[in-house]
Each structure stands twice: as structure tokens, then as C-alpha cells.
């Protein structure tokens, strides 16, 4: 082929590429490679196109060949690093990106990509320094401002994060991720209304962004005005959008795992869990005791972690699994390919619509049986999520089923198994009021749960118990944030004490000794905080609501034998609080006995709970097998 013809073909491919017609460009680059196998441009640009088409394995091969033809191309090294990162080869990716920077030290795009990779590997301080170096190279680079904002959020510096994302949007109002990133930072600062406004502004122009839609759903659970009918409709709409997107995804060779029929031989059930929270996190507190006691003759366990943090809790969880994989930073296509290769029989989602979830993948049907459990207090909205594990108190039969796309599988008496932290201090010997201190109510819940209705009710309790005070502890809790909310709830700020986050779990638990009574928010009640309070000898008052999020406390308190702490309505909630405040003998007895009550409850009978959990999983499995048999027969 003449050089002129090759050049013409290259120009034609470039025209398609620059116009955004990536598949057409990729096809022409492939033609050029056939006709000119030593063309650096055909391999380099073909690799770049493959990256844009989410084909990192193809991209890596093409870019490796391009580097063989021109090893000192900084742009090729940068793209090579991106392809390696997408394949999860983070060490090699970092080498390629740093090699690119040796040739072009101030390239702002490469610096930004390196910073992003450092975030994925958990090196937040290095990532921040790299973004700052990037901004010195190009001060008005919106991507670096937003990237640094995301690092600051991970470092619990939400106000700085908001300012950086706002700067990115000022520089580039159409930035594809800055508005959603700012929404997440607003939420970290408990500014839910502003977070929702950002998500909705983004979705007005990007209605098919499933990640943004999912994160918005998480925020809706905090609302004190949204009905469960409205909440379900929002989740179902997400599920329909995810299903539609999945149908547009190019089919994989094994895109529809076979549903097992009763004559399918199975010695063990291959059971996989997918979560970003297989680390020091509330989800792990409730998962570990189940994993420890699951029958290994019945189940083979795979754990899919999806977070840059791997700690001592991660290692303990890992010891209970036959296989462990970390998916952080990997594209959805790569994750899908790996899960299909592992071929689990049952895939359990532990994230729901919380951060770093992979819910859209479930719409592609990755396993014959797909189950939601633990991490989220509502339906996923996905028709492809077959089951949701719960109990009859958190989701009453005949009442909750209509508000789930999943079939509810209930195991009694409670759906949780709690693992108290091993470094727990002993409970406080006496309630604060018995030591001559003001009677202290408190909540250590995520501050986003303390919506206006919750604060108003807590204000009524303070007025019903003269001289009492309210102690709050949460990330992002500042006087500037809480004061106007207290004023709106008619609460005297002088009766409020704010506590900052503690350095460790033991220090956090020790602070429960400062509470006489813990107050559960609504409609999004606590789970971990309720168990912590009971473990530390502090009674918790919960308000039973009409949805799972508002009924977790009902299940936990019933399991520990303290249904008298469950309020049927706001008046009842206030009465229970007032009665406890005026009965020091009863309060002292509760503080002295609640840990033992929890120890003797189903929540800490881990072997029995694991057996119930196992039976629920087998019920899901057999239900799907029976369904497959009926379908095959028809």
C-alpha cells in the first residue's frame, strides 16, 4: 500500500475520531494496522479508541505494541497507564504514568490521571499533592479542582471539597462529574437539600446517569415528608432505567447464567458477596459472624471487595472465604467479566444504593440467584434482584411486600447478627443522672438522619424533661450547621452538646457512658448505633414506622426483650422518654443489664443466626430451581 494511501486512511480515521464517531475510527485504525503493521499512529490511536470504547484489554495490547514502535511517547505511556489501571494492574499503571511524566513532567492530564490512581490505591495525601502539582501546571483545570475536591471529601474535609467542586463548575459548567461530586460532598456535610438539588440539576441534563440516580435515592431515605409509595416509585423507576440500559449493553458470551434445575448436580452452593464495605464498617459488624459460622460443606464463599481500604477487618473477613477479589477502580465491564468467570450460584449485594455500589451490573443478570441484604434499608428497585433478606418485624408480611421489586425472604426472630467490637470498654457503671449530672439524651447517628421532624420531637422531649440536655456526635457536626436547625426546632442551643469524631472505636464506645438514654431518629433509624448503645448499657427509644428503615429498631429491641422502648407514635415516644427520666431505679437497672440482655439475644447467638441465614439462602436457591423447572416444563 502506498504511503499516500496509508496517510489518507489515517486522516479519515482521525476525522471520525475527532467527531466522536469512535467505533468508525477504531475500524479504520484496524484496517490501517493490517495494511501498515508498523504504523505507530495506527496502534497508538487504535489503543486510545479502544479505551474510549471501554475495551481496556484490547487497548493495552495495542498500546504495548505502540510503545515497542516508539518507547518515548509520553501520550502513549499515559494511555497505557490508563488501560492497565482499568484492568486492575495498578502497580504497572503507576509505572507507565510516572514514565510519561519523566518525559513530560508538567502534563496536566497525566498528573490528574496519576492522582486518580493514587486515590484508588488509598494514598490520599500523595493524591492531593499530585492534584496540587497539576493545578500549578494548569491553574484553571476543572478536572483537577474537582478531583482534589473528591480527595478532600475522603479526608473528611467536606467544606473544602464543596469549594473545590464549586470552582470546577465555575470553570466548566458542563463538567460531567463535578456537580455529582459536589452533591456527595454536600451530603458529607449533611446538607441534604443542596445535595438533592445538585443531583436533580445534573439529572435534568443526564437522565441516564444511573450512578447519580442511585445516589439520589440514598438521600431520599432521609426525608421526613416522602411517603413509602413515593419512595418505592422512585426506586422502581431506577430499576426500569437500569434494565433498559442493560438491554443496550453488548451481550457477553455467557450473558444469561443458567438457572439451576432440580436435576442439576451441585455438591456446594457457590456464594459470592459484593460490597465496598468489607473493612472497618457497619456492614462488616453484621456480616462477619455469619461468615464465621456458615457451613463450608454446603457453601463455597467468594468475597468481592470494592474499596481502596483493606484493613484488619478485611483480613479477618478474607480468612472466611475461599476467594477474595478487590474491584476498586475496575470498569463495570471488567467486573462483569470476572464475576461471570467465577460463576457464583448466588450473588449477594451488600450495598444497595449506598456509595460505590454496582447495582446496574445486577440488571445484566450476573448470577442465577441475586439477593439484596444488610447494607440498604429499602428495595433496590431492580426486577433482576430476585430476593431481599429481612425479618417479619422490619418488613411485616402482607404490608411491606408491595413496596419491593424483590421477593422478601424473612428469617426470624431477627435478620441481624451483631459482632461487638473486640476492644469494647465495659458499660458505664451508673447513668450520668445518677452521678448528679443533668439528664442526658443523645444520638450518635449519622447527622443526616436528624431531619426537621426528628429534631422537633427531640425538642419536645427536652421541654418535657426540665433541665435535660441533648448530646450529639457525628462527622460534620459544627455549630454553624446545627444552630439554625436547632432554632427551627425551637431547641435552646445551650442545652445541646456537640462531640467531634473520635480516633478509634474504643473511644467512640466509651462516650456512651455520657448518655442516660439514646434517641433513635426517624424515619431512618439506626442499626449499628442501636446495637452499640445496647452493648454499652444505654436504652434506646425507637419510633416504629411504616417502612424497613423505620422498623429496624423494632426488630433489634424485640430481639433483646425490650419492646417497652418501642413507641407507636410521637406521643408515645415522648412518654417513654419522660418515664425513663423520672424513674432512676429502672434506668439504673437497664444500664446494668442491657449488655447481658444483648449477649443472651438472637443477635449474639451467631451460630443459630448463621443457620437461619443459611436456611434463607437455601430457600432462595430452591425457589429459583423450582421456578426454572416449571419454566422448562412449559
Description:
It is built from 26 helices and 13 strands. The strands form two sheets. Strands 3-2-1-4-5-6-7 form a seven-stranded parallel sheet, covered by helices on one side. Helix 15 links the parallel strand 1 (269-275) and strand 2 (299-305). The longest helix is centred in the last third of the chain and has 28 residues, at 606-633. It has 634 residues and is of the alpha/beta class. The chain has helices spanning 3-18, 22-35, 40-52, 56-69, 74-86, 90-103, 108-120, 124-137, 142-154, 158-171, 178-188, 192-205, 210-220, 228-248, 282-293, 312-319, 332-342, 359-362, 452-464, 479-488, 505-510, 528-535, 552-559, 570-581, 584-599, 606-633, and strands spanning 269-275, 299-305, 323-326, 346-349, 369-372, 387-390, 407-410, 440-443, 469-473, 496-499, 517-519, 540-543, 566-567. The termini are far apart. It folds into three domains: 3-183, Serine Threonine Protein Phosphatase 5, Tetratricopeptide repeat (Alpha Horseshoe); 269-417 and 617-633, Rossmann fold, CATH 3.40.50.11380; 432-604, 3-Layer(aba) Sandwich (Rossmann fold), CATH 3.40.50.2000. Residues 266-409, 440-607 form the O-GlcNAc transferase C-terminal domain. TPR repeats lie at residues 108-141, 142-175. This is protein O-GlcNAc transferase.
Amino acid at each position: 500500500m502506498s504511503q499516500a494511501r496509508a496517510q489518507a486512511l489515517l486522516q479519515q480515521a482521525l476525522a471520525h475520531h475527532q467527531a466522536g464517531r469512535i467505533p468508525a475510527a477504531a475500524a479504520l485504525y484496524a484496517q490501517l494496522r493490517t495494511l501498515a503493521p508498523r504504523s505507530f499512529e495506527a496502534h497508538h490511536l487504535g489503543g486510545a479508541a479502544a479505551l474510549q470504547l471501554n475495551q481496556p484489554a484490547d487497548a493495552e495490547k495495542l498500546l504495548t505494541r505502540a510503545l515497542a514502535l516508539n518507547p518515548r511517547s509520553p501520550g502513549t505511556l499515559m494511555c497505557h497507564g490508563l488501560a492497565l489501571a482499568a484492568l486492575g494492574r495498578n502497580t504497572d499503571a503507576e509505572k507507565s504514568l510516572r514514565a510519561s511524566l519523566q518525559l513530560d513532567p508538567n502534563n496536566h492530564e497525566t498528573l490528574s490521571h496519576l492522582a486518580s490512581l493514587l486515590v484508588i490505591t488509598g494514598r490520599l495525601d500523595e493524591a492531593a499533592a499530585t492534584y496540587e502539582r497539576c493545578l500549578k501546571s494548569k491553574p484553571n483545570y476543572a478536572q483537577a479542582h474537582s478531583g482534589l475536591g473528591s480527595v478532600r471529601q475522603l479526608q473528611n474535609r467536606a467544606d473544602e471539597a464543596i469549594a473545590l467542586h464549586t470552582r470546577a463548575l465555575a470553570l466548566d459548567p458542563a463538567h460531567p462529574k463535578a456537580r455529582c461530586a459536589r452533591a456527595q460532598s454536600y451530603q458529607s456535610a449533611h446538607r441534604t437539600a443542596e445535595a438533592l438539588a445538585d443531583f436533580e440539576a445534573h439529572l435534568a441534563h443526564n437522565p441516564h446517569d444511573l450512578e447519580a440516580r442511585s445516589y439520589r435515592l440514598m438521600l431520599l431515605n432521609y426525608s421526613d415528608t416522602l411517603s413509602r409509595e413515593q419512595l418505592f416509585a422512585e426506586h422502581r423507576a431506577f430499576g426500569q432505567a437500569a434494565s433498559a440500559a442493560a438491554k443496550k449493553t453488548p451481550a457477553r458470551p455467557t450473558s444469561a447464567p443458567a438457572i439451576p434445575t432440580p436435576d442439576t448436580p451441585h455438591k456446594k452452593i457457590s456464594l459470592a458477596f459484593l460490597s465496598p464495605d468489607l473493612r472497618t464498617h457497619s456492614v462488616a459488624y453484621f456480616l462477619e459472624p455469619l461468615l464465621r459460622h456458615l457451613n463450608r460443606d454446603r457453601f463455597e464463599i467468594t468475597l468481592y471487595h470494592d474499596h481502596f481500604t483493606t484493613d484488619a477487618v478485611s483480613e479477618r473477613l478474607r480468612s472466611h472465604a475461599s476467594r477474595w477479589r478487590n474491584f476498586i477502580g475496575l470498569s463495570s465491564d471488567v467486573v462483569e467479566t470476572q464475576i461471570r468467570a467465577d460463576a457464583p450460584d448466588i450473588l449477594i449485594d451488600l450495598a444497595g444504593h449506598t456509595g460505590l455500589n454496582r447495582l446496574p451490573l445486577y440488571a445484566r443478570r450476573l448470577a442465577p440467584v441475586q439477593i439484596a441484604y444488610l447494607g440498604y434499608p429499602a428495595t433496590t428497585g431492580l426486577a433482576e434482584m430476585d430476593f431481599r433478606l429481612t425479618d417479619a418485624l422490619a418488613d411485616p408480611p402482607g404490608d411491606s411486600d408491595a413496596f419491593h421489586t424483590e421477593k422478601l425472604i424473612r428469617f426470624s426472630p431477627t435478620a441481624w447478627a451483631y459482632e461487638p467490637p473486640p476492644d469494647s470498654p465495659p458499660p458505664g457503671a451508673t447513668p450520668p443522672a445518677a452521678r448528679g449530672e443533668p439528664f442526658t439524651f443523645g444520638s450518635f447517628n449519622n447527622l443526616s438522619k436528624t431531619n426537621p421532624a426528628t429534631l422537633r420531637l427531640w425538642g419536645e422531649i427536652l421541654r418535657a424533661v426540665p433541665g435535660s440536655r441533648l448530646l450529639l456526635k457525628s462527622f460534620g457536626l459544627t455549630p454553624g450547621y446545627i444552630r439554625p436547625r436547632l432554632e427551627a426546632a425551637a431547641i435552646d442551643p445551650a442545652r445541646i452538646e456537640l462531640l467531634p469524631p473520635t480516633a478509634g472505636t474504643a473511644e467512640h464506645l466509651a462516650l456512651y457512658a455520657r448518655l442516660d438514654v439514646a434517641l433513635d431518629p426517624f424515619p431512618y433509624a439506626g442499626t449499628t448505633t442501636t446495637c452499640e448503645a445496647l452493648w454499652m448499657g444505654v436504652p434506646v427509644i425507637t419510633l416504629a414506622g411504616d417502612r424497613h428503615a423505620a422498623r429496624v429498631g423494632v426488630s433489634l429491641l424485640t430481639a433483646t426483650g425490650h419492646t417497652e422502648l418501642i413507641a407507636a407514635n410521637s406521643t408515645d415516644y415522648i412518654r417513654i422518654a419522660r418515664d425513663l427520666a423520672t424513674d432512676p431505679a429502672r434506668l439504673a437497672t437497664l444500664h446494668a443489664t442491657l449488655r447481658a440482655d444483648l449477649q443472651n439475644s438472637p443477635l449474639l447467638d451467631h451460630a443459630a443466626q448463621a443457620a437461619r441465614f443459611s436456611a434463607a439462602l437455601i430457600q432462595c436457591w430452591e425457589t429459583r430451581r423450582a421456578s426454572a423447572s416449571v419454566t422448562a416444563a412449559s
